[in-house]
Amino acid sequence: MSDSERSPLLSATGKAKAPVQPSEESFESTPLLSGSDTTPRYDGEQDDVDNADAASIASRASNVPSIKPTKTKSIRWPSVIAVIILSLFSLAVIVIAFVVPAAVEEYAKAAAVLEPTNLSLESITANGVRARIQANFRLDGQRVKNDHVRRVGRATTWLVRNLGTEETKVNVYLPEHDNILLGTAGLPPLTVSIVDGHNTAVDFVADLIPGDAEAVRTLANEWLEGRLDVVRLLGKTDIQVKAGFIPLGTHSISETLTFEAKKLPQVPEYNITRLNIGEEPLPGHDKDAIAVEVSVQAFNNFPVSIDVPEIGFDVLIPGCDFNDPFILVAAAVTSPVAVRPQADVVVNAHGIVEEIPKPLTQICPNSDSSPLDMFFKKYLGGEKATVFVRGQKEAPSGTPEWLAEILSSITVPVPFPGRSFDNLIRNFSLTDVEFTLPDPYAEPGDPDADLKVSGNILVLAALPSDMNVTLNVTQVRADADVFYQSEKLGELNLPDWQKANSTQLAAGKDQEALIKIQSFIKDTPLNVTDGSVLADVMQALLFGGEEVVLGIKTLVEVRVQTILGRLELKGVPAEGKIPVKPMSKDLLGFVVPKVGGIEIIDTTLESITLKAIVNITNPTPYSAYIPYINIHLLSNGTTVGEAIAEELHVTPGNNTNLVVSAVWNPSMGGKHGRKQGRDLLSQYISGFNTTITLRTHRDSIPWQPQIGEGLSQLNLTISAPRLSLPGGDGDDDDGDDDQKQTHFIRDAIFHIFSSTATFTLVSPLHRNTIYIDYVNATALYNHTEPVGRIEYSLPFAAPPGLSQTPKLPVEWSLDSVGYERMKQALGGQLKLDARATVSVRLGQWTESIWYIGKGIGATVKL
């Protein structure tokens, strides 16, 4: 290699020459990296520079302009202007490319106003829905808060004026559900004014095509079930934009919209204006089915218009559990529906129930009710019973397949307004009623420990006007609450199925459709829960003289035979009235019995237990079986004994030879009882008009203390029953119309010569002998004039029936008018009165009583 090739490109011209001092004009010609003789090469060699190369470098260096031009040289303006324009253009590019689009985009988002004026779904096509959309579009700069953005946006849109789009396809996805395609909208070319404040009326037809049916189903079900808090939609499209005829390119737009569930359109309120249930032949079958026709009316508050074709759907009822599948009960089809904005929408549907599905009537686990029972319990109770509606996959002709597919995957709950059957019972009556009192030997809780009712039930109920189905009630049972004047009296329970039959009465000109149900109940428990209410009822029946109306509220279980087979309906609520006829005016014959056949069962020092044969007349239409009842006997408010009846069967009309027991025990009334009992007994055997008060008590009816306590408020005071005496009824008329007495002394014989008297006594006892231990008596003529006095202390017997006393000594009142009158009646008879104090003994019981007898026939002998 030569020395010149190894020389630096920028170096001095010669090696041996002294360095040249640069002049002022040639300063810039000096290399930035100038060399020297002492400067080493990068390879370390010190070769001379080739002369030819040095001459060339020197020649180029001599042509480089100096760094400082001369004063006479001019400014090159074209270059300056070009640099300025280039800088401004670069700045404009930066602003237009980055600043303006961002500002315009922000301005457009904030200022855009779209006001829908009408949405009409013109037709349902084979692929989707063709919708006509009408709206007003404008940009309102006042909605933009940022002043800079507002100014840039207004200026830009004023320059552009109009903006147009080509035909566009928009896909809508659900981001929260794996971006499932919800649907596609095909939009035609559009041109709108984007000048601030200018309004553009938009009117175009778009084809809306549903996407994945699963997406629609998921979204719809979440909304219907109330689990949809927000809806997030993602719209994606590639839009071709142009300003006038200038194309602005294709832009990919992706926008997310979020809607709160509460702001989504809700299912409008609706009214069921017509509901008809009838029977009609089943096409293609030799049998009838139940047909249901429903008309539903709702108001369309949205600017939506559409003509909906016939749609088939299934009607389902919930199963036993929330998670159980729904039970298909009917198939229905709607008639074509015209939906218009701000107008009522009427939907008519016709459904057919061909048969009763078995799962509908099967008893649910751990329950005594079926799905049908639970549905009817709400429906007939006046509550909203929910049914579910689901589209049919096999849609009627005219329904697009895509619509059928979507509807078949959506189940919509429909609250079905309940029908209260309150006040539908026109009449509820009991005939041939028989009451059975509790068995005294039954254990608490035993059915025999309840008051029971037997009789014929006749129910006359109104059928709903919209029900025209043949029904035959075959069996009934019920639990009923019985009320009197809105206060609960008790509970009437029919735990076992009772046979029944029914007759439907067709509606007439002035008569509604009725169903008459008849059934006989036997020994149905009646639990009286409020004795005071029972007392009010008895008071009204005994003394009110008017019909007593009892209210009844019940949950009825019925077995009904229909054209589809037998249905068992549980918990059917019903209300009715039970009219109870008042007691007859001949009630006195019932409460004043005729007593005979008295027999003493037992005696103590203070009491007598006796048994008697009683004849009564029952003026009521009710029968009663009385296993046991105990009633207190009172005189002037003091208890003097009790009456007991066992195994009595009382029927309407005459009842004879009823055996009743009684206990005479004045000591039950305390310290005043014995005196009150002595006076009552003395008055009774003297023939006075005595009364006895009958009063129940807590233990009157076994196991039913509330009945006894309740009826104890009702004191029934009656005349003491008259005894049937042998040898006649003992009635004598002494000439006074108001004086009819029962005489225990039938007649007397006075012997003047021996000063003695004998009496014929009548004992009401049939098997027991009464002993008279002491007699202190005075015979009177004309009620006041003494005839004579008898005092006798030797005991003598008064056996059953008629008997004669021994000759009792008489101490005559010789100076009295009465004695003279007796002598005048020698060989004949006269009427005498008697006043006596007598000590009587019956078994262990003894009592001293007084006796006043009037009109005793006395025979006078010598």
Automatic annotation (TrEMBL):
Q: What Pfam families does the record tag this protein with?
A: LEA-2_1 (PF26174), LEA-2_4 (PF26150), LEA-2L_5 (PF26153), Tag1_C (PF22786)
Give yes or no: UniProt keyword Transmembrane.
yes
The regions listed as transmembrane in this protein's record are: 80-104
Which segments carry the region annotation Disordered?
Answer: 1-48
Where does the Tag1-like fifth Ig-like domain start and stop, copy by copy?
738-850
The record places domain Tag1 C-terminal at 467-581
Q: Note the InterPro entries from the entry.
A: Ig_Tag1-like_4th, Ig_Tag1-like_5th, Tag1, Tag1_C
Boundaries of every Tag1-like fourth Ig-like domain copy:
592-707
A single Gene Ontology CC term = fungal-type vacuole membrane
Record carries keyword Transmembrane helix: yes
| Signal peptide positions (record) | none
* Composition skew (Polar residues), residue ranges: 28-39
Which keywords appear in this protein's UniProt record, sorted alphabetically? Answer: Membrane, Transmembrane, Transmembrane helix
Name the chain's protein. Pre-rRNA processing protein
Q: Which organism is it from?
A: Podospora didyma
Please spell out the taxonomic lineage of the organism that makes this protein.
Answer: Eukaryota, Fungi, Dikarya, Ascomycota, Pezizomycotina
